[in-house]
């Protein structure tokens, strides 16, 4: 079944030395093949993109932009597809017209999804607190990384009795 995938715009927020951020930089997807396909929070503290987790294996993650001082190791704070890393070629994160965000591998198999639907345009933003949020055009939150914590809790992130913290 041939299905056309319609991609919406995914705001790429770049760190700027001024107090305003140009939100006009947009793309329909982020590719594992382009190291500069990274979202950066307005304050420059957090970045999100494909992160190498092994030989030719990548996961979509949020991390502190500056490595901590001991050994220059990057500190990952959230990871989408930790159980299904994707290949280093032709894999991507895409924002679909349906309002869903998916990660596909080289064979175009969906390995991760927000499982969201929206009739209005959606935007993926990396907030200053490290929360990756999918908004609809009215600003409503459809999905957020804070609702599916992995191995790190950040300030302002709640861990309720119905949530599970996952660590490797």
TrEMBL record:
Q: Which SMART domains match?
A: B_lectin
Domain Bulb-type lectin: start-end pairs: 24-147
Q: How does it sit in the membrane?
A: Single-pass membrane protein
This protein's GO cellular component annotations are: membrane
Q: Which domain of life is it from?
A: Eukaryota
Question: Where is this protein localized, as stated in its record?
Answer: Membrane
Q: What is its main location?
A: membrane
Q: Which UniProt keywords apply?
A: Disulfide bond, Glycoprotein, Membrane, Signal, Transmembrane, Transmembrane helix
Matching InterPro entries: Bulb-type_lectin_dom, Bulb-type_lectin_dom_sf
CDD domains given in the database record: B_lectin (cd00028)
Q: Which residues form the signal peptide?
A: 1-18
Stated name of the protein: Bulb-type lectin domain-containing protein
